[in-house]
Amino acid sequence: MIAIATWNINSVRLRIDQVERFLTEQAPDVLCLQEIKTAEALFPHEMFERLGYVHRAVHGQKGYHGVATVSRLPFREFSRHDWQDNGEARHVGVELLGAGQGLVLENVYIPAGGDIPDRDVNAKFGQKLDFLERMTRWADAIDRPTLLVGDFNIAPLESDVYDHKALLKVVSHTPLEVETLQRLADAHGWVDLGRKHIPAPERNYSWWSYRSYWRDKDQGRRLDHMWASPELAAQSSGHRFVEETRRWDQPSDHIPLITGFDL
Questions:
Q1: Are strands 236-241 and 191-192 parallel, antiparallel or unpaired?
Q2: Pick from 154, 222, 145, 229: which is nearest to 187 by CA?
Q3: What is the CATH number of domain 2-261?
């Protein structure tokens, strides 16, 4: 079995000890990180090397965004798409070699989209929708088993948020975002592994605001996702979220997801 994890770490250098703890305790074969917030030259390679994650693809920039895929399994970097169309580091793709050979793993950080769900008054919201449309055109041409993971910044289902009606006009759960994400899903027939293995309406949150989590209101949203090509999804053997990381000292506001595959 191969275990693949994804985690918006919200600064890999600030939380490098937490990443080390997670890798030591959970031991995924591959970890996809988003919002690493560092340029490649300052990425903390030493810890990953020490733990055996000797294969790394880092697409970073100073202070913002950035993604990295680290692995104990060999891979080759496959692609870097600029779906934001402005040079921001938000994607890196790799192709696994050896065990899992041929599987393409796409690691993406979709823009949050600002606070107002109206592209006429909030350019960031329009950029988010355009990002998804570019991804949709890309997905329409995929012709091999692919795993798409990362922080999508959209909670698509009613049960993916703590209060569906209250969040209908809140960026991340608006009908327009959900419809746009669904077009991306349909473009390749992606299977949502989070809901394949933890069916709706079971609780399956991956993000809690720093402002509300510790009030014990469980005001979560499922913003992080792992989607697979249909033939690859059939080989997925389990999916889980590691919520304990959200209780660690000075945590990321996101938690890791892990999916196992019988390849």
A1: unpaired
A2: 229
A3: 3.60.10.10
The Cα-based distances of 177 to 99, 118, 133, 172 in angstroms read 36, 11, 11, 7
Q: What is the DSSP string of 30-96?
A: EEEEE---S-GGGS-HHHHHHTT--EEEEE--SSS--EEEEESS-EEEEE---TTSS----EEEEEE
Supply the pTM of this predicted model: 0.97
Q: What contacts 180, CB < 8 A, 6 or more positions away? A: 129, 132, 133
CA 123 – CA 86 distance, rounded (Å): 13
CA distance 42 to 61: 10
d(CA 58, CA 240): 25
Rounded mean pLDDT, 86-107: 94
SS3 190: coil
Q: Which helix (H) or strand (E) holds 7?
A: strand 2-8
For 206-239, write each residue's pLDDT tens digit.
Answer: 999 998 765 578 999 999 999 999 999 999 999 9
Separation CA 113–CA 135 (nearest Å)? 16
What is the token pair recorded at 169? 């006009």
Is the pLDDT confidence value at 99 over 90? no
Q: Sort 253 into a burial class: Cβ within 10 Å, 0-12 / 13-18 / 19+.
A: middle
Q: Where are the domains of the chain?
A: 2-261
The two most distant CA atoms of the chain are separated, in Å, by 49
Write out pLDDT tens, residues 123-170.
999 999 999 999 999 999 999 999 999 999 999 999 999 999 999 999
Pairing of strands 55-59, 67-71: antiparallel
